[in-house]
């Protein structure tokens, strides 16, 4: 559990207060006001989304960005949308979460040895943050990685998160990866002797509804993460 005076808590408070990207600020606040019919009676979060999880985590999960009516509504990463349904089911199966679902901020969810962040902390229009917006968020990811000193396995959900992870760790380690790792579901790359990057297709509806990503494929990534941590 992250205490109120923990450096990660102070970092997350700075995330929540961020207004660097005018397009994202306008969009997230517009969505929070206009809502959608099925959530019309709910109060939306409508701010940058803080990361969540265990500050001593050995597993770091990096996603793309909050969903407009998922995290932007609930105020928690991967919470209240179908992508989150997939993620937390797998995390629960392999012992990284105390329950298989995450519906709202006060539902009792606890993450074990796992920390979840994103390349972009605001919900972007069409789920596509601009390069400049990603760059504005990049310092948050770099600072998180520096503070999460026990991480041994990184799971990147989607190609953008994979590229963000590679770039962040290359900068922190002051090195260039050659040849540059290529994204592909199940791809595995050793970032350092103690750190491994695993790639997964993002559990978006575009991937799960079409069968590009199946439950077995997704579970295989977290099964591998668990085995690496136990080795």
Number of strands: 6
Helix content: 25-40%
Lateral arrangement of strands in the main beta sheet:
1-3-2-4-6-5
CATH superfamily: Uracil-DNA glycosylase-like domain
Secondary-structure arrangement, i.e. CATH architecture: 3-Layer(aba) Sandwich
* Total individual domains: 1
Question: Order of SSEs, N→C?
Answer: HHEEHHEHEHEEHH
Structural class: alpha/beta
For the largest beta-sheet, the strand count, sense and barrel status come to: 6 strands, mixed
> Shape from CA axes?
globular
Q: Any idea what the radius of gyration is?
A: 17 Å
Contiguous low-pLDDT stretches (5 residues minimum) are none
Core attributes:
6-stranded mixed sheet, 231 residues, 6 strands, alpha/beta, Uracil-DNA Glycosylase, subunit E
How would you explain this protein's 3D organization?
The protein is an alpha/beta fold and 231 residues long. The chain has one domain: Uracil-DNA glycosylase-like domain (Uracil-DNA Glycosylase, subunit E). 40% of the residues lie in helices and 12% in strands. It contains eight helices and six strands; from the N terminus they run ααββααβαβαββαα. The protein has helices at 7-17, 22-34, 71-74, 82-93, 131-147, 159-173, 205-208, 215-230, and strands at residues 52-53, 59-63, 114-118, 153-157, 188-192, 195-200. Strands 1-3-2-4-6-5 form a six-stranded mixed beta sheet, sandwiched between helices. A hairpin with a 2-residue loop joins β5 and β6 (195-200). α5 (131-147) packs across α6. The chain is globular.
């Amino acid at each position: 559990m992250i205490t109120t005076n923990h450096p990660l808590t102070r970092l997350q408070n700075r995330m929540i207060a961020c207004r660097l990207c005018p397009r994202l600020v306008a969009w997230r606040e517009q969505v929070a006001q206009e809502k959608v019919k099925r959530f019309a009676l709910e109060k939306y979060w409508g701010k940058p989304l803080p990361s969540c999880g265990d500050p001593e985590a050995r597993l770091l999960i990096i996603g793309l960005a909050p969903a407009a009516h998922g995290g932007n509504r609930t105020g928690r990463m991967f919470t209240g949308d179908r992508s989150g349904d997939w993620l937390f089911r797998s995390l629960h199966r392999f012992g990284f979460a105390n329950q298989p679902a995450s519906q709202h901020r006060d539902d009792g969810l606890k993450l074990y040895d796992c920390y979840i962040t994103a390349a972009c902390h605001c919900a972007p229009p069409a789920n596509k943050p601009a390069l400049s917006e990603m760059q504005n968020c990049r310092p948050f990811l770099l600072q998180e990685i520096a503070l999460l000193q026990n991480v041994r396995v990184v799971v990147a959900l989607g190609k953008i998160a994979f590229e963000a992870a590679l770039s962040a760790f290359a900068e922190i380690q002051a090195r260039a990866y050659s040849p540059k790792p290529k994204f592909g579901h199940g791809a595995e790359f050793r970032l350092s002797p103690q750190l491994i990057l695993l790639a997964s297709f993002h559990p978006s509806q575009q991937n799960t509804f079409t069968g590009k990503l199946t439950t077995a494929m997704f579970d295989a990534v977290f099964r591998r993460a668990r085995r690496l941590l136990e080795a």
